[in-house]
């Protein structure tokens, strides 16, 4: 038998570079598909779903919420926090301006699966406690690159439930935001007792399960917001919206 050829150091470097280049091509291909090929919006019948809103964070810049209201939008969800320590620096301004414009206001927290529920509940409450909110507190639960990719499903749900229990214990009603993958992975078996805010680029009437709010576009154009903004509708009539607002029980507000 001939001797087994051992790759030299330059060979290792060459193959590492090739593997890195291949991985980069795959990542870039995935990004291109996500950004330019896969749908990021769907047309929703505003006569059938007349109550609409936006969700925003610091990335949307300075917003004229009076213009948003005058463009026939009724509510806004504002990013408050993320993970254990991050707090959105635009929250206070967005909250104040949205309230002054007369929009119905909610707040959301981006859940990091590699942090405990208590840590994240404490962070979220540190932003919103004592404020006047019209809508449930939202936990944004989704899988994305780097968001606790090695955290098991059971551990993630355990941490979400810990956070929910703490928020409920403070008197807050909780809503879960997720997409269709998250609905199947996290929501439908373990979290379905809580209101659902679903991201789906499908008309709400075509989905086979109920949900309160649907995010139907990442590419919306709204007066008062520079650039693209997420669009949402309440999945019901104006009368049902009014009833829902009466149902939402949040703590005594300052």
Which structural class do the helices and strands define? alpha/beta
Largest sheet: 8 strands, mixed, barrel
Please give the share of residues in helix: 25-40%
Strand tally = 9
Q: What is the end-to-end distance?
A: 84 Å
In DSSP terms (H or I, runs of 4 or more residues), the helix count works out at: 7
Overall geometry comes to globular
Protein traits:
254 residues, alpha/beta, 7 helices, 38% helix
SSE blueprint:
Elements: H1 9-37, E1 52-56, H2 65-70, E2 75-82, E3 86-87, H3 91-101, E4 104-110, H4 117-128, E5 137-140, H5 153-169, E6 174-179, H6 180-190, E7 195-199, E8 213-220, E9 229-234, H7 238-247
Parallel strand pairs: 1-2, 2-4, 4-5, 5-6, 6-7, 7-8
Antiparallel strand pairs: 1-9, 2-3, 8-9
If you had to describe this structure to a student in words, what would you say it looks like?
This protein is an alpha/beta fold and 254 residues long. It has helices at 9-37, 65-70, 91-101, 117-128, 153-169, 180-190, 238-247, and strands at residues 52-56, 75-82, 86-87, 104-110, 137-140, 174-179, 195-199, 213-220, 229-234. Helix 4 (117-128) links the parallel strand 4 (104-110) and strand 5. It is globular. The N and C termini lie far apart (84 Å).
Write a concise synopsis of the structure shown.
With 254 residues, this protein is of the alpha/beta class. It has helices at 9-37, 65-70, 91-101, 117-128, 153-169, 180-190, 238-247; strands at 52-56, 75-82, 86-87, 104-110, 137-140, 174-179, 195-199, 213-220, 229-234.
């Amino acid at each position: 038998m001939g001797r087994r050829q051992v790759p030299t150091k330059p060979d290792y470097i060459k193959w590492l570079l090739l593997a890195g280049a291949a991985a980069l091509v795959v990542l870039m291909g995935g990004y291109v598909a996500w950004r330019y090929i896969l749908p990021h919006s769907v047309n929703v019948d505003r006569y059938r779903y007349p109550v609409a809103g936006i969700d925003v964070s610091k990335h949307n810049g300075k917003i004229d919420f009076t213009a948003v209201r005058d463009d026939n939008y009724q509510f806004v969800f504002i990013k408050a926090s993320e993970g254990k320590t991050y707090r959105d620096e635009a929250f206070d301004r967005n909250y104040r301006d949205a309230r002054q414009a007369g929009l119905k206001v909610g707040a959301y927290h981006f859940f990091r699966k590699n942090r405990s529920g208590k840590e994240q509940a404490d962070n979220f409450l540190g932003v919103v406690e004592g404020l006047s909110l019209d809508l449930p507190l939202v936990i944004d639960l989704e899988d994305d690159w780097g968001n606790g990719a090695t955290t098991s499903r059971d551990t993630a749900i355990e941490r979400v439930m810990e956070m929910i229990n703490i928020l409920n214990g403070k008197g807050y009603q909780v809503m879960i935001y997720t997409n269709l993958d998250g609905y199947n992975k996290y929501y439908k078996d373990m979290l379905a007792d809580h209101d659902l805010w679903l991201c789906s680029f499908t008309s709400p009437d075509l989905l086979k399960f109920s949900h309160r709010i649907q995010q139907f576009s990442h590419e919306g154009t709204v007066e008062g917001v520079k650039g693209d903004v997420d669009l949402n509708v309440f999945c019901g009539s104006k009368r049902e919206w009014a009833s829902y607002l009466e149902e939402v029980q949040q703590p005594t507000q300052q």
